Protein backbone atom coordinates (compact mmCIF):
# COMPACT_ATOMS: atom_id res chain seq x y z
CA UNK A 1 0.00 0.00 0.00
CA UNK A 2 1.32 3.43 -0.93
CA UNK A 3 -0.11 6.52 0.65
CA UNK A 4 0.57 10.19 0.74
CA UNK A 5 -1.14 13.53 0.36
CA UNK A 6 -1.73 13.23 -3.39
CA UNK A 7 -2.11 9.48 -3.97
CA UNK A 8 -3.31 6.39 -2.11
CA UNK A 9 -3.07 3.02 -3.84
CA UNK A 10 -4.58 -0.14 -2.38
CA UNK A 11 -3.11 -3.33 -3.78
CA UNK A 12 -5.40 -5.75 -1.97
CA UNK A 13 -8.94 -5.65 -0.63
CA UNK A 14 -10.51 -2.47 0.66
CA UNK A 15 -13.12 -3.26 3.31
CA UNK A 16 -15.48 -0.59 4.59
CA UNK A 17 -16.99 -1.59 7.93
CA UNK A 18 -20.62 -1.10 8.97
CA UNK A 19 -21.23 2.49 9.99
CA UNK A 20 -18.18 3.86 8.13
CA UNK A 21 -18.55 6.69 5.65
CA UNK A 22 -16.68 7.92 2.61
CA UNK A 23 -16.51 11.64 1.90
CA UNK A 24 -15.36 13.74 -0.99
CA UNK A 25 -16.82 11.68 -3.82
CA UNK A 26 -18.88 13.35 -6.52
CA UNK A 27 -22.63 12.99 -6.09
CA UNK A 28 -23.03 11.23 -9.44
CA UNK A 29 -20.97 8.34 -10.74
CA UNK A 30 -19.67 8.35 -14.27
CA UNK A 31 -21.52 5.94 -16.54
CA UNK A 32 -19.85 2.64 -17.31
CA UNK A 33 -18.30 2.03 -20.71
CA UNK A 34 -16.64 -0.89 -22.47
CA UNK A 35 -13.27 0.44 -21.29
CA UNK A 36 -14.03 1.62 -17.76
CA UNK A 37 -16.18 0.74 -14.78
CA UNK A 38 -18.75 3.26 -13.71
CA UNK A 39 -21.98 3.73 -11.80
CA UNK A 40 -24.21 1.08 -13.35
CA UNK A 41 -23.69 -1.20 -16.32
CA UNK A 42 -26.45 -3.55 -17.39
CA UNK A 43 -27.86 -4.96 -20.58
CA UNK A 44 -30.74 -3.07 -22.14
CA UNK A 45 -34.01 -4.35 -20.75
CA UNK A 46 -36.81 -5.81 -22.78
CA UNK A 47 -40.39 -4.68 -22.20
CA UNK A 48 -41.14 -7.74 -20.06
CA UNK A 49 -37.83 -7.85 -18.14
CA UNK A 50 -37.14 -7.05 -14.56
CA UNK A 51 -33.68 -5.83 -13.65
CA UNK A 52 -31.71 -7.74 -10.97
CA UNK A 53 -29.83 -5.47 -8.57
CA UNK A 54 -27.16 -6.83 -6.23
CA UNK A 55 -28.17 -5.76 -2.76
CA UNK A 56 -28.71 -7.31 0.65
CA UNK A 57 -27.61 -10.70 1.91
CA UNK A 58 -29.19 -12.68 -0.93
CA UNK A 59 -27.35 -10.38 -3.41
CA UNK A 60 -30.43 -9.88 -5.61
CA UNK A 61 -33.36 -7.49 -5.45
CA UNK A 62 -35.90 -7.88 -8.24
CA UNK A 63 -37.55 -4.69 -9.39
CA UNK A 64 -41.30 -5.08 -9.32
CA UNK A 65 -42.87 -5.50 -12.74
CA UNK A 66 -45.66 -3.26 -13.91
CA UNK A 67 -49.17 -4.76 -13.86
CA UNK A 68 -50.18 -6.41 -17.09
CA UNK A 69 -52.75 -4.38 -18.96
CA UNK A 70 -55.30 -6.66 -20.62
CA UNK A 71 -55.40 -6.56 -24.38
CA UNK A 72 -58.44 -4.69 -25.66
CA UNK A 73 -60.52 -6.96 -27.90
CA UNK A 74 -61.16 -5.99 -31.50
CA UNK A 75 -64.69 -6.17 -32.83
CA UNK A 76 -65.40 -7.66 -36.23
CA UNK A 77 -65.53 -5.17 -39.07
CA UNK A 78 -68.85 -3.47 -39.79
CA UNK A 79 -69.08 -2.32 -43.38
CA UNK A 80 -70.06 1.28 -44.03
CA UNK A 81 -73.81 1.64 -44.18
CA UNK A 82 -75.38 2.18 -47.57
CA UNK A 83 -78.88 2.35 -46.10
CA UNK A 84 -81.32 4.57 -47.93
CA UNK A 85 -84.16 4.25 -45.43
CA UNK A 86 -84.61 4.00 -41.68
CA UNK A 87 -85.34 0.26 -41.71
CA UNK A 88 -82.05 -0.55 -43.45
CA UNK A 89 -80.16 1.84 -41.15
CA UNK A 90 -81.62 0.12 -38.06
CA UNK A 91 -80.48 -3.24 -39.49
CA UNK A 92 -76.92 -1.93 -40.02
CA UNK A 93 -76.84 -0.35 -36.56
CA UNK A 94 -78.07 -3.54 -34.88
CA UNK A 95 -75.35 -5.49 -36.73
CA UNK A 96 -72.76 -3.10 -35.28
CA UNK A 97 -74.17 -3.55 -31.76
CA UNK A 98 -74.07 -7.35 -32.15
CA UNK A 99 -70.40 -7.23 -33.18
CA UNK A 100 -69.50 -5.00 -30.20
CA UNK A 101 -71.27 -7.41 -27.82
CA UNK A 102 -69.63 -10.47 -29.41
CA UNK A 103 -66.18 -8.90 -28.95
CA UNK A 104 -66.90 -8.15 -25.28
CA UNK A 105 -66.76 -4.39 -25.79
CA UNK A 106 -70.40 -3.99 -24.78
CA UNK A 107 -72.49 -5.82 -22.21
CA UNK A 108 -74.87 -8.44 -23.55
CA UNK A 109 -78.62 -7.81 -23.54
CA UNK A 110 -80.38 -8.58 -20.26
CA UNK A 111 -82.81 -11.44 -20.57
From TrEMBL:
Its main location: virion. Keywords: Host-virus interaction, Viral attachment to host cell, Virion, Virus entry into host cell. Signal peptide: none annotated. One of its GO terms (cellular component) is virion component. It holds the Pfam family Phage_head_fibr. It is found in: Virion. InterPro entries: Phage_B103_Gp8. One of its GO terms (biological process) is virion attachment to host cell. This is Head fiber protein. The lineage of its organism: unclassified sequences, metagenomes, ecological metagenomes.
Amino acid sequence: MEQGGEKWVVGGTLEIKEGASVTGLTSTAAPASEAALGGVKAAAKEETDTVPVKIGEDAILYVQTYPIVPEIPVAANQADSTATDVTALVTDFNALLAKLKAAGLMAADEE
